Amino acid sequence: MNKELSSFAARLREGISNCQFPIGNFPFGDFALELFALQFENNSAYRKICTARNLTPDTVKDWPQIPAVPTSLFKELELTSLAPAERTTVFHSSGTTEQKPSRHFHCTESLAVYEASLWENFKFQISNFKPIAAVADTGEQSVIGNWQLAILTPSPEQAPNSSLVHMFEIIRQKLGQPDSTFVGWVDAEGAWTLDFDVALAALTNPHSAFRTPQLVLGTAFSFVHLLDFLAEKNLRLQLPAGSRVMETGGYKNRSRTMPKTELHTLVEKFLGVPRENIFCEYGMSELSSQAYEVRNAECGMRSFQFPLWARVRIISPETGREVADGETGLIRIFDLANVFSVAAIQTDDLGVRRRDGFELIARAQLAEPRGCSLMTA
Amino acid sequence: MNLPNYFLADLPPEAELTSVMVSSACDTLKRNREKYLRPRATDDIVKILCEVAVEWLKPENRFRKLALEFGPLQTGFSRPVLEKGLDDFFRRFTPENFDALLKQEFGSTQRLDGFADGALVRAPKLLVHIAAGNLPNPALMSLTLGLLTRSAQFMKCASGASFLPRLFAHSVYEADPKLGTCLELAEWGGGNADLETALFAEADCVTVTGADQTLAAVQSRLPAKARFVGHGQRVSFGFVAREVLREETIAENVSRAADDVVAWDQNGCLSPHCFYVEERGEVESDKFASLLALELMKRETVEPRGEITIEESAAIASRRSLYESLAAHRGDVKLWASRNSTAWTVVFEHEARFHFSPLNRFVFVKPVAELKDVLKGVDEITGKVSTVGIAAPPETFSELAKQFAHWGATRICPLGRMQNPPLTWRHDGRPALGDLIEWTDIEL
What is the arithmetic mean of pLDDT over B230-236? Predict the structure, then answer.
């Protein structure tokens, strides 16, 4: 294990835990340049790309210049500083039909960073968008503790290579009651599906009688499956007051697509969770931090925001430069928590720049293929 | 644009179409066809179609001028690309070519007019077209074939794609108003059940061009009496034989390859996604790729690519970013790309497996040792290939064509002509007119 990267990981974790997210100061630029130099040094696959672009620690003066690698490259190359023997875990991109999945390698230390990053960020979301300091003042336990979880994905045993399932498992361990459960499973084709009986049992758990709030975590397509089932059975649940729903991810041909507003309306109708208690996450296996959709208090506009240790830039696909506020481009993320892989990640998702966040353009909203020539995105 | 209101597509955008309007338009079309179109002689129709084409080819023609002036905004193609595409299209309209088409399809030029050699052919009374949105030629060709068979026609254009079919229909109307009254054009987003149910109820035959799921959706909703003719998604590619990779012929072949990429900005099913280039020619395959890049750069200054959507642009940027990174790792991957734009991209890759291009002038050049490698590389798209454009000396062209034909390609042509099929072209390997009509045999 590279000592400098390990030391960086330890300092980053400390920074993440102490940064009074989301209002604290975080020395992002310094961290970013230091990490770039370390990744350039220790990640040979990445170094070749940087060198070919003539962007090296000698020439890069500010973090936005750090060369980003496309998410699709994780399918082609081993973008890691970890030696084969050090890799204890690998996260694959979701999707069952891909011949070559993305591979994001992890070790104990990198997982610790991932877990710190996801937890500190999630904690803020679940505390109803209050800064952690404010939560602490009121007694964090009251906000964080004792949720009844229903997780609409397969369990970590069934999906050991899913970064999302790993994240849900960490959340379950941190704040779920012991019988909180995963209600999905992996079918014979490798696709994720729901065990509706188990899901229904989890959502109508006897704990509800004691008004323990439910936290339902799942992908957008798993919610569509669940809502279709509830509609078919004509079942309308009323989760206890204070219950929350978190949905993430696109559809990727695994269920019928549904505009987000419609999905949220149906969640409200069939689960009895009001819209303000539904929150959306944006993440991927190639990252170690997530963005959550928040409402800007001043303008009322909703946008995805990363935590202080990850920054986003919206890049014009035509010019490769950052777009102006309100314009659309490709989402590029600089995620310091990707310590042992590559911090600068170029996604192929489109977003509208909203100040320092972005509004995600759902895949379903993208133009339909036109005409007679086959194209794949 | 100041065109008279002949067609539903001429109505202002705020006018809302109803199923009653569609049904009533179909009634009118059928009545007009009985009066004005069915009694006409084939020679007469061919004459008018050729006159229309001659007019379109004149620089001062008002429909051409409108097409070139407003086309870039309406269609997303630059003026030179539109000009070239439309000229290539209308140049096919000659009496000889129409005769050849009729003979090919019906064995005689007279069978639409009466019995000839024991048979005549009958066209559907109302032919409905569900047209695709990517490029105009297939829609114009559908209207032309329908006029030739003397069917009344209702064309449903994709949202935002009625501009050129409209101009063409107006030009027919101007040349012969009676013929014009047998055409109807409208524009709406596909899948509008109300309007489409009304339309399909009146149709004798429905042609659909577009995505496979569009075809399936339409087919499932047709009444039993309506014949279905579908043209689904297809792809094309080129093959360059080592014999033509010589210093004295390379420039010409590169220019032809560029013609095929530039035509309609590579948007049609006849446009090449990639060129397979044989190795060990006098000029190496990567040189071919670099020369093609240079040629595309030059073309951008004279036949610029049109505006594309942010999604299309993002698809190109994502692919470029991947190949740029791979190029840093592998000597056998190279990338040439326009600066500060996605206008053109050439990816050279030692990987015979066919890859879909994001199009809009993004093309792969793939070196292969021999033809066998190409056939293996395109195995996954068997049955989905329209055109193979070949650059090879005359003595090997036919043999290569035979091999691609047996493999399943439905059209083989010389490189440089991929987007310019003749009037007699059998779309997707199906008869050009034969699927539209019915025969009556007579035994004396």
Answer: 94
